[in-house]
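We emphasize that the prediction below concerns an isolated chain of 293 residues; any contacts that depend on oligomerization or on bound cofactors are therefore not represented. The input was used exactly as deposited, without trimming of termini.
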Amino acid sequence: MSESNSPLAQRLTALSGAFIKVSSPAPHVALVELFRKPVNAFNDPFWEEYGKVFDNLSLEQDLRAIVLASALPKLFTAGIDFQALGSMANFDKDPARRALQTKEHISMFQKAIGAPERCPYPVIVAVHGAVLGLGIDIVTACDVRYAASDATFSVKEVDVGLAADIGTLARLPKVVGNESLVRELAFTARNFSPTEAAQLGLVSKIVQGSRDEVVKAALDTAKMIAQKAPIAVVGTKHLLLHARDHSVQQNLDYTATWNGAMLQSVDLSDALKAAQAKSKPIFRPLGKHPAKL
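Result of the prediction step, given as a token string:
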């Protein structure tokens, strides 16, 4: 049976919607592609679909790694569709009630764009062309970030009169190593290159070329991850996120408790037996609802 006809591939394809394509190009791997012509500008239906796709992927028990990319050949995303902001015109005219409705709308938007971070499986984002505004919010919520050599980045929000509010200002200072440069980029909205993004720590790999080349590189990494013990990979992501938001000692204590249970997994013995036999281990699916870990 080819991978495109496997039960997993059929389930993943069924998650595709009006703006997002989902496929399984390799065993245990999902490819999620943004596809809203002409420039992947996000309106409400787009980001709502985005959040639902990743939340549904989180419940897929036989998945092990995800690649996020754009299906459009020229760019990743131009960011928010500002014409779509007209929907806020229907909010209450009373300032206090309007503020509450705006807060709720922003919070729902934040939750949708943060879905890859909630997903228990590693998410590798592969960007090319323009990665503007909301594009930075999207990539900072992913685990591994690759850029094609033709990519251009910008924290664009101040150019349109607002502070970035969907995740960039919360996550970017924590995923990079130069807060001075983070502030410069956020204050000026200037474009920056993949080379500067790598120096900043925003991306870990620059791939020569454009969409096809960077997606291939990301899929190669996803296939490598998919061969590892799923209990170990899911636990690693979970513990890394805990470490980001807690002290060293708190994370050490939590990890000891976590592995008190996880070290009892059959994955550990399967990996050791395969190593002794010099063969590739075959691991069981995680089981139901890994997103609830």
